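Attaching the record inline, Q. Sequence:
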Amino acid sequence: MKALVIGGGIAGPVTALALQKAGIESAVFEAYDTTADGVGGMLTVAPNGLAALQLVGLEPDFGEPLRHMVMADAKGRTLGRITGDVSRVVTRAELYKRLRELTTAHQIKVEYGKRLVDVENHENGVTATFSDGSAETGDVLIGADGIRSRVRTIIDPQAPRPEYVGLLGFGSYAVNSGVHGDPETMYFVFGNSFLGYWELPDGTVAWFNNLAVENPDEKTEVPWLDRLREAYGDDMPAKQLLAHSTEAVAAGPLEIMPSVPHWYRDRMVLVGDSAHAPSASSGQGASLAAESALQLARCLRDIPDLPTAFATYEQLRRPRVERIAARAAKTNSDKRGMGPITRLLMPLVMKTFGAKAFTKDQNYRIDWDVKVS
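Structure, as predicted:
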């Protein structure tokens, strides 16, 4: 079997590595002309994601370790604390670079400047045509081409598009702010707006936040950093962190994929954000993509009939990813502003439901050696 993997970001290389582990040849086709070195913001790879990446050969020694998560209000009161296995906070650029190096070491072909135009399914294979006029034929085609997937629209022209959740993301660094944190701990503060932060080894505090903005394309004459300072007001520690930051780097609008009705058709199938893109609020986007890559590879390894393999893959993945996406949507609602009743109930909710759901998500592991039935 030969697989054509469309998309060379994060999900594409992981899928190719998983397929190789399953004994399946693949080639990756990336739309952009060059690699994405240096592109992207910060992300968290959860323990379940690290376990999945380790199965394809990527050791969990990148980024900064994170073991504890503390929920707090804008007056500094702790609402809840969750401790689990180590996650890693990493730039997308670093994770991308490590995966690119791994695919090179494993001699997996990656071609650039291959923007997918169309797909033709025939009895014994599938042919992809690209905007440069070239074509490639294989046995299956896997769409790992992200939240604006071309493969998704080919599978289903009526497929939903990503939805803006009403929040813009920003991030930066605060120096000599007087704000400190415990080692391997990330703090999530719910006040006038949401803010997250953690302390780096040199004492600098890295922070990220979300600002409720109705129109993601809104233009403003007021610098975003000033807009953020106004929005947070006297919230702590936001006031200190923003006062000691020289810029607010826009990470873009937060988006979420509605439930995608059709994950596969004929010899085409979706993986990662093209099928399921929970909001960044989930902290699980990259981890879920890695899991899906492995589960798809297992199904193709163990089930010779393609429709059955694809259906089994979807059955293994859809309930989990949609449950996490639904919880992220609720988090987005809280980030847009919690009322007094929600703030009052938050400690109880965190202790009763938050830690349990968080632990369940992170404890998920794929048993590669078990045959899929």
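The chain is about 35% helix and 30% strand. Residues 306-335 form the longest helix (30 residues).

More tomorrow.
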